[in-house]
Amino acid sequence: MALRCLGVLISKEISAGMTRRISTTATRKMLHDSPNAQLNKQLLNRYTRLQQQIDPKYIQATYLWIDGTGENVRLKDRVLEKIPTRPEDLPHWQYDGSSTYQALGGNSDISLVPRAIYRDPFKAGENDIIVLCDTYKPDGTPCDSNHRAAMQAAYDQTKDEEPWFGIEQEYTFLDVDGRPLGWPANGFPGPQGPYYCAAGADKVVGRDVVEAHALACLYAGVQFAGTNAEVMPAQWEYQVGPSLGMKAADDLWVSRYILWRIAEEFGVVVTFDPKPVEGNWNGAGGHTNFSTNAMRKDGGISAIEQAIEKLSKQHLKHIKAYDPRGGKDNERRLLGALETSSIDKFSSGVADRSCSVRIPRGVANAKKGYLEDRRPSSNMDPYSVCNAILETTMLNK
Predict the structure, then answer these.
(1) Residue 220 CB-density burial (10 A; 0-12 exposed, 13-18 middle, 19+ buried)
(2) What pLDDT does residue 55 have?
(3) Would you identify the CATH topology of the domain 154-395?
(4) Which of 173, 239, 276, 385 could form a disulfide with 206, with the two C-beta atoms 3.0–4.6 Å apart?
(5) Predicted confidence (pLDDT) per residue in 376-391, tens digit
């Protein structure tokens, strides 16, 4: 028995050594084919140091919007001669919707309406801004991918109850070949277990991007709450909120844009796909935390339980609202395994990460607080998710 155990240990050690060698060889050329990673980023500094004329004081405004896919952003810059103090101070603008899956060429002007302002961490000017917009068709109606308008309408009807949202955004780093960053080219890393909230070069990849993202979000004015390495290697999470009303959803879109831009500079690809690797690997979610004034008061657990009861009766409605493809993306993720619930059946519980909706242990003990809806996918539109929660729990729709 002792010799057999020794043989097994030797075999495992040899196998591990071979895996380490294969991994090192396969990842040695990581990002080799990424053109952005090969650019000399220091050359930009010579231009960012240029002094602008004093009068008028020009600022650059990056107009940002969601395209017709419902999961990607587009942007273009505009030079202004006045520093805006609120979105209403900014001019409306247009773009070619036929190039963003939102219009046909014969009548393609889509309108941009500014909704929120953020400091721009990528521009040199101290007053340069990101302008988050929503989009409208030529007839003035919201674009099909504009779910912000519906959420705003729902919030306007429920704002007296002070609804708060906090969103946990999971995502995965990829190399330019579509392989998770740092994974062996011809194999797989060791099984899940040592990577969650880990430290060490053999467990974590991409921390520089993650920490740059956190700093840039805080500078921009995103209500950034934290970050951690996730269960699958090359997978990460950050959180925004909790925030009142529209802010958490606005912040999530702007924080996604900031992450894409920073990763672009590093030559790394970011995916919000909810199941980037098939098989026994965790998917990626957009867990959404929700509370009202009644839930946060002493004895608020009763209001939380009432909200969960309402959610249980509208499961299909929420599944359709919780990814950009009406539930098709979540079919790959919500398997009733790997810390997910089943897509076909609603469930709830205390401190149970295999449930559709979870009551955290601290909330159950305090008998007040919030609920966590674990069904939204990582590529969900937060406006669609938050609107569905408001409609079901507060407007009885």
Answers:
(1) buried
(2) 66
(3) Creatine Kinase; Chain A, domain 2 (3.30.590)
(4) 173
(5) 999 999 999 999 999 9
